Amino acid sequence: MNDLDIKEIRAYLGVTQAELAKRLGVSERTVQNWESGTTIPESKHALLRGLKPQTYFGGNVEQTNVMGNNNIQGGNAGFTAELSKLVELLAAKETSLQNAQAHIDRLLAIIDNLTKQQ
Fold first, then answer.
1. Which long-range contacts (CB under 8 A, 24 or more apart) does 57-62 make?
2. What is the C-alpha to C-alpha distance for residues 6 and 48, in angstroms, rounded to an integer?
């Protein structure tokens, strides 16, 4: 997860840092740090990946219709649906970044071995 993901999603959803912090159970300063590029602790990665929009931002998922759309009771139906999509996107980006880091680590090991051989 990079520093722009949380900020972009928060801005897209129209949620303030204070509201996001309250909903996630962290301080506003923590959200500010995440958005400015401070490393997000692994324990918080799990929190962000497991974010259930209807729990944190209101609305109750009542049923899924034939088209696969959730019918949500409450004023946050569009917000909740978009948040669900964005949480999935964040999880995919995190996996992609972890894979890229694994490739970088392997390349660094190869470079290190080649350097030692010379």
1. 57/15, 57/23, 57/83
2. 10
Question: What are 41-82's pLDDT values in tens digits?
Answer: 666 666 666 554 544 455 444 433 333 444 444 455 667 777
Eight-class DSSP state of 37: T
Rg (CA), the chain: 19
Q: In terms of Cα–Cα distance, which of 43, 57, 41, 46 is closest to 9?
A: 57
Domain chopping of the chain, boundaries: 3-117
CA 61 to CA 56: how far, in whole Å?
A: 13
- Stretch 14-35: mean pLDDT: 85
Residue 17 in tokens: 């840092």
